[in-house]
Specification:
This protein is α/β, with parallel strands linked by helices. 45% of the residues lie in helices and 14% in strands. Strands 2-1-3-4-5-6 form a six-stranded parallel β-sheet, with helices on both faces. Helix 7 links the parallel strand 4 and strand 5. Bound molecules: 1,4-dihydronicotinamide adenine dinucleotide. The site of 1,4-dihydronicotinamide adenine dinucleotide (NAI) has 27 residues, from helix 1, strand 4 and helix 8.
Length: 271
């Protein structure tokens, strides 16, 4: 069913690594809704090759860019603008990585060089993508820029490690840049706080399966799948959400506002 919610819109989609990626599903839905976009990922992710298959399906190209490099982002935007034939209406930042998480360092034994890397890749890159966009004046009025977050930005999830601070920073950048970009050019900036999702980034977090199941039991609607997140992203890129900005939007089946569920109570009955 095509409704062409994004007809005539152009943009950038980062972070499609494989078919489980939230960005991968977003690209397919954005295409279905009439958008034109360029895909990008870190040069190292290109080696896996899967993103080229997605590009074929979406009838587009892939431009490698390390999101921590201002030069790479400048080059990405310049080439994408030429390929797409104009400025952008949307940018998806779907990027996250913590070397501390990946290498199993505990929160009380962090490697600080890696902490900087976690913040740079997972949060500051969001600022970089917007600052370069502003300087190149590459966004159209009423454009929409989105990042993806997790509730560990507000509450303690011990296994989430230094990614918790990275997400808190990401959400803060969305607010601060959202104000600035709104004033400057009526561009809106938001984060979507997504349920645990079975992707490479998600399953890399310690104890993922347990907290995936816990979260599913806590949410009246169950965990929100990646496909549904992609639909939400498409709606946020569409003209139907023009006045939503500087928000952290929970897309989590009701998890964030549930104190406790019957399912969880049941498990503690005889303790
Ligand atoms: P994913 O592993 O498919 O995507 C993460 C992407 O970040 C990959 O494509 C990776 O190549 C890219 N990336 C890493 N370093 C980069 C760099 N220096 N430059 C450019 N790209 C780089 O996993 P997923 O889950 O689709 O992640 C997308 C976003 O959603 C991330 O921000 C993640 O933290 C967030 N999120 C994920 C949840 C989950 O449970 N999977 C829950 C809530 C938020």
């Amino acid at each position: 069913m095509s409704e062409n919610l994004l007809r005539g819109k152009r943009g950038i989609i980062t972070g499609a690594l494989d078919e489980n990626s939230i960005a991968w599903k977003t690209a397919l839905k954005a295409k279905e809704q009439g958008a034109k976009f360029v895909l990008t990922n870190a040069p190292i992710a290109m080696r896996m090759g899967a993103i080229q298959d997605l590009a074929k399906q979406c009838d587009t190209i892939v431009i490698p860019a390390d999101a921590t490099s201002v030069e790479d982002i400048e080059k990405l935007y310049a080439e994408a603008k030429e390929y797409l034939g104009g400025n952008f209406d949307f940018i998806l930042h779907s990027i996250g990585m913590s070397p501390n998480v990946r290498k199993g360092r505990e929160y009380g034994d962090l490697n600080y060089d890696w902490v900087h890397k976690s913040y740079d890749i997972s949060a500051i890159s969001f600022h970089k993508m917007m600052q370069v966009a502003e300087k190149m004046d590459i966004m159209n009025e009423w454009g929409s820029i989105l990042g993806l977050s997790y509730i560990a930005a507000q509450r303690v999830y011990p296994f989430y490690n230094d990614m918790a601070e990275a997400k808190a920073l990401l959400e803060s950048i969305a607010r601060s840049y959202g104000y600035r970009y709104g004033k400057l050019k009526k561009v809106r900036v938001n984060t979507i706080s997504q349920s645990p999702t079975k992707t490479t980034a998600g399953t890399g977090i310690g104890g993922f399966d347990s907290f995936f199941n816990f979260s599913d039991s806590m949410s009246p609607l169950g965990n929100a799948p990646a496909d549904a997140c992609a639909s939400y992203i498409v709606m946020m890129f569409s003209d139907l959400t023009r006045y939503v900005t500087m928000q952290n939007l929970f897309h989590d089946g009701g998890y964030s506002f549930t104190g406790i569920s019957e399912d969880i109570i049941e498990q503690f009955k005889d303790k």
